[in-house]
Every structure is written in structure tokens, then in C-alpha cells.
Amino acid sequence: MTTNLSRYILYVILAIIAIPSQNVLAGTRKALEKKERYKIAVCDWMILKRQKIGAFQLAKELGCDGLELDMGSLGKRDSFDNKLREVYFQELFKEKALENNIEISSIAMSGFYGQSFVTRPNYKDLVQDCLNTMKVMGVKVAFLPLGFGGDLKNNPEIRPELVARLRVVGDMAEKDGVVIGIETSLTAKEEIELLKEIDSPGIKIYFKFQNALEAGRNLYKELKILGKERICQIHCTDTDGVTLPYNDRLDMKKVKKILDKMRWKGWLVVERSRNKDDVRNVKKNFGENVTYLKNIFQK
């Protein structure tokens, strides 16, 4: 009798201990069950939460499926201001992602918006830091903008050095089984030529609607020309002016038809398209953009 009672008490204790684990497993399953062809994320630096824990809760409130995490600011530093080198923050970010049912769509090196990838002597160390972060956070796509000093339109003379560096980091990415998505100011045909020259499966195009629209190019033709395999991810917004529901020069339904026909699938990441008269109203601007994209791409 005493033995049976002891066993019963033991079972109850084990069941109580198991409850948190079951909740974690349920959360994990729920995250894995997101199987939409298109998932919607937002950039943490654009919602003013760069590498902040609160970004996950805010992304949830905005209705996102995911979050593009930034490596942290760069400026005149030798390295990114990256919290995610520390185990404490790695675990905390993973916990908050699971708690809010938010996936990490990609890791961004947005510091290269203001720094030149071509002239940085320690570019390999910076990219390795990003690759290490991707590995520990379980992310497959990195974002590398090539605007500042890496713009081939305005600086064609840098092409040999840029190609050489992208080959190096492309090989680094390929070795880790991930992809670095580059953002350029080139046309789709020019980007194809650049990819051929780099000749690395570790480098693809991170397509940005704003660039094509600002340059007066046909966004829809650009997508078709690049094709499914060359586009790893998309910043699916325009420059600041109005939010997406009110943007007359961006037909998102047409975009969806083209992407459907291409059989492309993946993350659509909200970067800009803020109301120019109210740019710091994060919840209104990004809430409108996310809701609009979900109504088109996930209905």
C-alpha cells in the first residue's frame, strides 16, 4: 500500500515537472506549423528595436510571422555592436521568439548601409560574426546591403575588388550551408551578370522593391528576369511616403501573381513604406503594412 502511494506521489511530481516542457513543445510545434507560402516579417532596426528583446513582443502585436534581426550598429567600430555573441542573450532571444511565436527570418548586416563593404579591411571577420550568429540562432539567410561605397552604378571601378570579396564570403556561407543575400542598385540583368561573375551558391539577391521603383524600372519585369532561384528574400516595401495600402505605384496583387507564377516562396520583409508625416508611429505604420500584406499573401 505504502509502495503504491509512493509511486502515485512520484507520478504526480513528474507530471507537474513535465508541464513547462509540454508547453515549450507545444510552442515549438505551433511555430513549425506556420506553412504559408509567404511569411511576413519586419526589420527590428526599423521598428526602433535593434537587438532589443522587446522586438519580439512588438512583432507579435504587429501581426508578423517573423523578425529580421540586425547584427547591431557598426559605425567606426571594428565590429558590430552584437549582443548575440553572448550565450545569455542567445538563449534569451530564442526564449522570447518561442514565447511570442515569432520566427527569425534572417540576420541583417545593416551597418553596411553606412559603411563600405569594399574598403573594410576586416570584412571577413564581420561576415564571420554574422555567420556565427546565424548558426547559433538557426537562421539560413543573411542580408548584406552594398549601397555605401559598394554601389556599382556610381563606382564601377570597384567591381574587381567587390567580386573578389563576395566570392570569399560566398564560400564562407556555402561552407555553413547558408546564403548571403546582397542588395544592389543594379538592374535585374546586371545582377544576373554579377552573380555569374561571383559564381558562388552562397550569394543570392535580396530583392528590394524600393530600389527598382526609385530608379523608374518595371518592378514586375525585374522579378521575372531574376527568377525564383536567384532571389533569396524580399524587402517588399517602397520608400517612405505613404503606407502600402495607399501606394499607387506598387501593385501588390500583381506582385503576388508574378511570385505565384514563378513558384517563389519565402519571407516578405517590411522595411519602410512609412507615412512621411508620422514616421515614428511604429505601430500604425508597420501595423498597416503587415495587415495589408497578410490580406494579400495569406488569404
What does this molecule look like?
The protein is of the alpha/beta class and 299 residues long. Helices cover 46% and strands 14% of the residues. It contains ten helices and eight strands. The chain has helices at 2-32, 54-62, 87-99, 123-137, 159-176, 188-198, 209-214, 219-226, 252-262, 282-297; strands at residues 38-43, 66-70, 103-108, 141-145, 179-183, 203-208, 231-235, 266-270. Strands 1-2-3-4-5-6-7-8 form an eight-stranded parallel beta barrel, surrounded by five helices. α4 packs parallel to α5 (159-176), α6 (188-198) runs parallel beside α8 (219-226) and α8 (219-226) packs parallel to α9 (252-262). The longest helix is centred in the first third of the chain and has 31 residues, at 2-32. The model is unreliable at 1-5 and 7-33 (pLDDT under 50).
Could you give the distance between the termini? 59 Å
How much helical structure, as a percent, in the residues?
40-55%
Please report the total strand number as a whole number: 8
Number of helices: 10
Look at the helices and sheets and give the structural class: alpha/beta
Q: What is the arithmetic mean of pLDDT? A: 90
Q: Write the element-wise H/E pattern from the N-terminal end onward.
A: HEHEHEHEHEHEHHEHEH
Q: What spatial order of strands do you see in the largest sheet?
A: 1-2-3-4-5-6-7-8
The percentage of residues in β strands lies in 5-15%
Low-confidence stretches are 1-5, 7-33
Largest sheet, if any?
A: 8 strands, parallel, barrel
Q: What is the CA-based Rg, rounded?
A: 21 Å
What is the 3D form? globular
